[in-house]
Amino acid sequence: MPNDIFLHLGAHKTATTYMQKLFRSNKKYFDSLDTSLVLKRTLSQHGLHQFMSWRNHVERNLGAKRPAKLERFFVKLASSKSKSVFISYEGLLGSMHLGRSRTIYPAAEQSIELIKKSFQGKNIKVVFCVRGYADFIESTYNWLVKNGSGKSFDEYLSGVVVEELSWKPVVNALRENFGDENVLLWKYEDYKGNYKYINSRLLDFFYDGADDGELSYEENSDKNVSLGKHYMNLMVAINKLINRSSAISPRKKKKLKRVVRKVLEEVQRTGVGRAKMKLLPDETRKTLDDRYKRHLDELVNDGVRFIRV
Questions:
Q1: Do 123 and 235 belong to one domain?
Q2: Is residue 152 situated within a structural domain?
Q3: Using CA atoms, how far apart are residues 111 and 5, in angstroms rounded to an integer?
Q4: Do 65 and 203 belong together in one domain?
Q5: Could you tell me which residue ranges the Sulfotransferase domain spans (predicted)?
Q6: pTM for the full model?
Q7: In this structure, is residue 167 part of a structural domain?
């Protein structure tokens, strides 16, 4: 029965897909530490990966069927034979679709309480990555377009309460439920150039520095590709045309949009037309960047631990 529960809860758009592929490719490493890996794929196999990604999930009762099923799954994990369990999935706190949730993970507190309840009596350690608000908005919109939306950026942004975007409620809920000593953060802006160092610090945090091993890294070309501005505008137009068609079944629409996305991503990888995506007005971006820096300073001054590079 595990004593330790390790949680990597995101956030979305902070290299979580890359990290989960890395963890999966190092399964033997975690096996050697008697740690059971539970990634998005595992949750998907149990029909649980969209637990907190429902539309209007804030209004839904956390005692509903799917959360109850998730809780039973967690309780089962808590009684497994391994020494520790490592869960990495950014969707447990909510959806990245800001146009629906209107702000960042509005139901995070309820989700965190459910996780704590499921692993009651266990030693829980949580790691979490934050990202600048302006980049987070634009990156989540990019994800939406790549997954078939024909909405313009202005339409997406109209559903976001920009002035309320903040990581602080999520981070504070983690601290209140698990304790400052069991919560560790890092910035996505730091991870991009220091990912091996940060990954190493995460393992030190989980295993109290007792592990002498290292993760094995392989060059992986199968990474999430953010579309440049021109390609993204092209995909929005194509998605809109496909969505409007009454002659194509929903299933075929999904397949067609996936093909379009793959083609544009492949062209993007060649380096052609890779203009940096800037969708927010400069004034709005500056306001959001300043708020992000201020919130980081406030969290640090309040005792939150960040990995420093």
A1: no
A2: no
A3: 16
A4: yes
A5: 9-206
A6: 0.85
A7: yes
